[in-house]
Each structure stands twice: as C-alpha cells, then as structure tokens.
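In the design runs reported in the main text, the only information available to the sequence generator was the tokenized backbone. The following block is the verbatim input for one such run; it is reproduced so that readers can re-run the procedure and compare outputs position by position.
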C-alpha cells in the first residue's frame, strides 16, 4: 500500500512526507470519514490547514476521493486501495456502511451507459436511508 501511495505521489511530482503518511494512515482500511473526523484523528500531529492541503493533493493524485452525501462529503481512499464498492448512508445517525458487492449491478450500470452510446470508465453510487438501528420503532 505504501509503495502504491509513493508511486501515485511521484507521478504528480510529490514525495511521501510524514504528514502525508499520517493522513493516509487515518484513511487506510476504514470507512469514509468526514474532514472533521480526519482533523480530529490527526489533531496532535498536523495542523488543520495541512490536513486540508493533503486531502486536496490526494484527490488530485487519485489517492483519495470525495463522496458527496447531500450537502456534506466524506473522504475515502480510491479504488486503487479499496477496490470498487458502494455505500449506504444513514441520514439519521450519519454512519456509512459498505454495500455488499453485486456483479449484476455493476454490469447493469455499464450496459445502461453503453446503450446511451457512452463509454463508461467508472461511477459513484451512494444510497441514502435509515440503518437497522435507526429504522427500529422506538
Ligand atoms: Zn443510523
Ligand atoms: Zn459500482
């Protein structure tokens, strides 16, 4: 993972600095996180402005991407690190869950795009609703 990170940074002419490694470490192997969460987890090591700059750089270098959730967003590592997957977002508690992989869904999206004379290269799909906890009657 670290070698891939280093290679992606190098492609853009950047080196692997300590703050970049720390931010990467916070994102690696975890569910998508808000900027506030990332800042919270790195608070005693890097200042806020550096976190914002690092995330921006990660987005440009294809290391991390932004998931738009309503008017907010969360950050996660790209498919290069995480594999292709989608999310379920709970609008009540704000948690994000991975959607179980479904090859039929993936084929379907590509097929629909092709039928519209479009050559698909990728997609994002975010599903909103209530998680098991939040949909329980109280
Ligand atoms: Zn919930
Ligand atoms: Zn997909």
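Verbatim output:
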């Amino acid at each position: 993972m670290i070698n891939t990170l280093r290679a992606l940074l190098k492609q853009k002419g950047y080196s692997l600095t300590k703050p970049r490694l720390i931010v990467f470490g916070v994102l690696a192997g975890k569910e998508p996180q808000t900027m506030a969460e990332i800042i919270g987890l790195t608070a005693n090591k890097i200042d806020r402005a550096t976190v914002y700059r690092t995330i921006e750089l990660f987005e440009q270098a294809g290391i991390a991407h932004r998931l738009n959730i309503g008017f907010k967003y969360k950050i996660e590592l790209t498919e290069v690190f995480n594999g292709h997957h989608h999310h379920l977002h709970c609008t009540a508690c704000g948690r994000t869950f991975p959607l179980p992989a479904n090859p039929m869904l993936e084929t379907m999206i590509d097929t629909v795009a092709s039928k519209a004379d479009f050559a698909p290269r990728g997609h994002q799909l975010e599903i909103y609703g209530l998680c098991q906890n939040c949909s329980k009657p109280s």
